Amino acid sequence: MTTPAPTSRSDWAAYNAAQAGRGRIRPLTARAVDALAADADLRARHAVELGCGAGVEARHLLALGLTVSTIDADPSIAPAMAALAAGGALDHRTGRIEDWDPLPAADLVLANAALPFVPRHAFDAVWSRIRAALVPGGVLAVDLFGAEDDWSSDAGTYLTRPEVEDLLRGLEVVELTERSERGPAFSGPKHWHVFTVLARAPRRPSDHSPV
Ligand SMILES: C[S@@+](CC[C@H](N)C(=O)[O-])C[C@H]1O[C@@H](n2cnc3c(N)ncnc32)[C@H](O)[C@@H]1O
70 Cβ partners below 8 Å, 6+ apart? Predict the structure, then answer.
């Protein structure tokens, strides 16, 4: 029997409990911080993390001096996030990404393996809110999943490369990598089709490439 594909309504508690002990931030988070630090003092910058899971990335961002707003649909992480928020620089909410409207203004929008679980019918509005939240020069660091992924269905958002390129119009694309290969997952091996995106909002109107 195959494991059902995870969606925004899945029970993510076991996954996030396993991630809580992860000592290292995701590589995309590290690259996003480097991109932000190249341009700006990290202190007093604001990050928005969508689908924050166990809070490993948020803890790192807080330690660097950023203020952070996070959201995740999994209520099991709320106590740990509340403990992190006691420092005064984190605002966490339990809820769905697609219901957070508007998003706060952000120097960094980060979403490691989370946006694909937004239902397809809600994704375009979520993406517009992400684009609107980015301040001039703000950094966008997200994973998007592709149509060849084993989990692909309209219960989530699984995109073709032209669709991904379309989403990135008007941004300075620092990195767009595509991986389509079999590999391990929490639920067992599967075919992964993943676009990893690191991009930057235009700094001035003149930086805006034509749409
Ligand atoms: C694969 S995990 C990634 C978690 C974390 N970003 C990480 O890198 O470990 C996906 C996360 O997205 C959350 N999630 C899934 N659908 C969501 C939605 N529609 N709104 C908010 N969170 C969602 C899950 O609860 C889970 O924590």
Answer: 48, 49, 50, 52, 55, 58, 81, 90, 91, 92, 93
Q: Which atom of ligand 1 is nearest to the CA of 111?
A: 6
Tens-place pLDDT, residues 11-69: 999 999 999 988 899 999 999 999 999 988 999 899 999 999 999 999 999 999 999 99
The helix (run of H) or strand (run of E) holding residue 33 is helix 27-39
**How far, in Å, from the CA of 148 to the mean position of ligand 1?**
20
Q: Which atom of ligand 1 is nearest to the CA of 8?
A: 16
Domain boundaries, the chain: 25-203
Cα(181) to ligand 1 centroid in Å equals: 22
Burial class (CB in 10 A: 0-12, 13-18, 19+), 182: exposed
Q: Which of the listed residues 49, 97, 143 should we mutate to test ligand 1's pocket, taking the one with most ligand atoms within 8 A of CB?
A: 97
Q: Name the token pair of 59.
A: 């803890």
Instruction: Give the contacts of 124 (CB within 8 A, at least 6 positions apart).
Output: none
The CATH number fitting domain 25-203, selected from 3.40.50.150, 1.20.1050.40, 3.40.50.300, 2.60.40.2340 = 3.40.50.150
For the stretch 130-154, pLDDT in tens is: 999 999 999 999 999 999 999 999 9
DSSP code of residue 5: P
Q: Are 76 and 103 in contact (CB under 8 A)?
A: no
